Structures are given as C-alpha cells and as structure tokens.
Amino acid sequence: MGKVVLLVIFAIIFTWVAQAQDQTSWAKRVDTGKEVVTTLQFYFHDKLSGSNPSAVQIAQAAGTNNSSTLFGALLMIDDPLTIGPEPTSKLVGRARGLYGSAGQTDMGLIMVVSYGFTDGIYQGSSFSLLSLNPAMNPVREMAIVGGTGLFRLARGYALAQTNSANSNGDAIVGYNVTIVTYV
Ligand SMILES: *[C@@H]1O[C@H](CO)[C@@H](O)[C@H](O)[C@H]1NC(C)=O
Ligand SMILES: *[C@@H]1O[C@H](CO)[C@@H](O)[C@H](O)[C@H]1NC(C)=O
Ligand SMILES: *[C@@H]1O[C@H](CO)[C@@H](O)[C@H](O)[C@H]1NC(C)=O
C-alpha cells in the first residue's frame, strides 16, 4: 500500500515539474495528440478559351513562344470546383491563384493556389497548395502546405488526374485530397 501511495505522489510531482517547464508568461505548449484526417473529392475546371476564361495569361518571358513547354508563361486562375466532372455539377468552391510554366525541358507547372470552399461546414475554409505539377503525368501528386478555417494547420497532398481536355488547353481535372489537421 505504502509503495503505491509513494508512486502516485512521484507521478504527480513529475507531471507538475514537466508542466511547469513548458510554461512561460508568453508561450504555452499543449499536447492534444488529436489529429483529424479529411478526404475530399472534387473536379477543377480550368478554362482558357471563350469569352469568359477562368485562366488568363498575365505574363510571359521573351522566349516563351519559342519554348516547347512555354517556359516562363504565367497564368492567373479563378477556377470553379464542382462535385462531378460536368461543368453544370454542383459548385463547392473555387481555386484561385497562379500557375506558371517552370520546366524548360519537360512540362512542369508551378502551382501557387488557394482552394476555397463554399459548401456545407467547409464554407469559408481553404487550403493552400504549393507544388510542381508535372502536367503530362497521368497522376500528379502535389503538396498542401497550410490552410484556414477547418483546414487550419493543414498538411497533406492532392492527387490530380485529368478527366477531359481539349485542344484549346481547357481541362477538367479530378482531385483526391487528403488533409491532416488538429481538433
Ligand atoms: C524565337 O525564334 C525565332 C525564330 O526561330 C527567332 O528569330 C527569335 O530570335 C527567337 N526569340 C527568342 C526570344 O529567343
Ligand atoms: C506569342 O504568341 C502569341 C500567340 O501566338 C502572340 O499573341 C504573342 O504576341 C506572342 N508573343 C511574342 C512575345 O512573340
Ligand atoms: C480518386 O478516388 C476515386 C474514388 O476512390 C478513384 O476511383 C480514383 O482512381 C482516385 N484518383 C486518383 C488520381 O487517385
């Protein structure tokens, strides 16, 4: 009996000392240990053609037209995100940001894009994707580096696969996204 009481007292003292070491007046550390994994599936509509494109070229280098990969081209996008691949499918958000051709010998788009959502509990939440998109690969893996709202402190990845594309460069891309956040 005495041993158990002693052990409990030691445990209490140890916890108290450990906590005290973690606290200062200006900073605090809490180990919640609670991760949340969110998976998302949606389609990204990148439209370069027509009178109302969602992707517009805003800059290019002097030699861009001579490059087979259009190295140096920079585009601004405001692309709809929908549940299904059809453009008329339910809108759940928009992908806003930049992509540019960053590959001289093979197609590599540098993506700096915020994916913001407007549906359900995800309304007002966004994640930030910053990654190279090897656009000619059947499946492109891209890194998610942060987020807001429900995606605060997000880290994760997106797997993107082209659903359809035409000769104007318009493309509909399927995304499977896995994001880890904290409670
Ligand atoms: C692009 O190619 C054309 C024709 O080959 C050439 O005259 C021109 O100098 C090149 N422009 C640049 C910026 O490299
Ligand atoms: C590049 O090509 C586009 C489309 O063909 C043309 O509109 C543009 O003027 C060209 N730019 C340069 C710098 O040659
Ligand atoms: C995305 O998920 C769907 C459904 O699980 C699957 O059919 C598809 O192959 C996945 N695509 C990629 C690129 O992972």
UniProtKB/TrEMBL annotation:
One of its GO terms (biological process) is phenylpropanoid biosynthetic process. The keyword Signal applies. Residues 1-20 form the signal peptide. Its main location: secreted. Pfam families: Dirigent (PF03018). Keywords: Apoplast, Secreted, Signal. GO terms for cellular component: apoplast. It is found in: Secreted, Extracellular space, Apoplast. The keyword Metal-binding does not apply. PANTHER family: NUCLEOPORIN-RELATED (PTHR21495). Homodimer. Dirigent proteins impart stereoselectivity on the phenoxy radical-coupling reaction, yielding optically active lignans from two molecules of coniferyl alcohol in the biosynthesis of lignans, flavonolignans, and alkaloids and thus plays a central role in plant secondary metabolism. This is Dirigent protein. It comes from Solanum tuberosum. The gene is LOC102587761.
